[in-house]
Amino acid sequence: PYMEAAGMTCEFVGHPVVAMARASEAEKAALRAVLGFGDDPVIALLPGSRRGEVARHGPIFSETFARLRRVRPNLQAVIAATAPVVDLVRETIPDASVLDPRDMPDSEAQMWKRAAFATADVALAVSGTVSLELAAQGTPMVIASQANPVSAAIARRLVRVDTATLVNLVTGRRAVPEFIFERCQPRMIAPALARILDDPEDAADQLAAGEEAMRRLGRDDEPPGLRAARSM
Predict the structure, then answer these.
(1) Cα–Cα distance list, 134 to 33, 36, 44, 217 (Å)
(2) What 3-state class would DSSP assign to 214?
(3) Which of 57, 98, 115, 192 is close enough to 27 for a disulfide, judged by CB 3.0 to 4.6 Å?
(4) How far from each other are the two terminal CA atoms of the chain, in whole angstroms?
(5) pTM, rounded to two decimals
(6) Exposed (0-12), middle (13-18) or buried (19+): which is 54, by Cβ within 10 Å?
(7) Has residue 177 got a pLDDT over 70?
């Protein structure tokens, strides 16, 4: 309506995440072999791609992983880090296996990233596009995001929706648990992750929501880039 009121045409062409390759069984097996995970359960930790995000979320994610591991000592953690924050991620989450993209071609880095997402039984991620990337790989997740007090106060005054997770927004469902601002605490996040690890029905509900999100965003239609080109 905003665009049309300004005299423009407006067409939804989908989201490029639906055109991303899905990890193959061979890629997932290669990841487990390289990291020495065997048949252990895996959690993907995704504390953000910028230094500020990692500095805020790294300690929280590390403590959450530690809480889960007290009950599941064989639980493994993998992090697909972006190049600028690899060292900070290793410092703040020392018990996780970190995929370092700095010395490999982008195509190889993307392969390991999607393999990490698809191999994980569950993911803990900050709010953002990464939730759609996880849904595209069929990975259930919990979203947790912290902000400085000023940003949090501004957000509370401006935001008019009750969820920050894109999968929830796209589907209109609240299948993905989220812990935002003052609720972004390990003691609250860990039980939500444990429920997904322990309850197949909970995980299946999320997978169904993820598939619905992908359909709404254009999976099985023409690629979004081509649809955009046709529109223009």
Answers:
(1) 21, 22, 10, 14
(2) helix
(3) 115
(4) 18
(5) 0.90
(6) buried
(7) yes
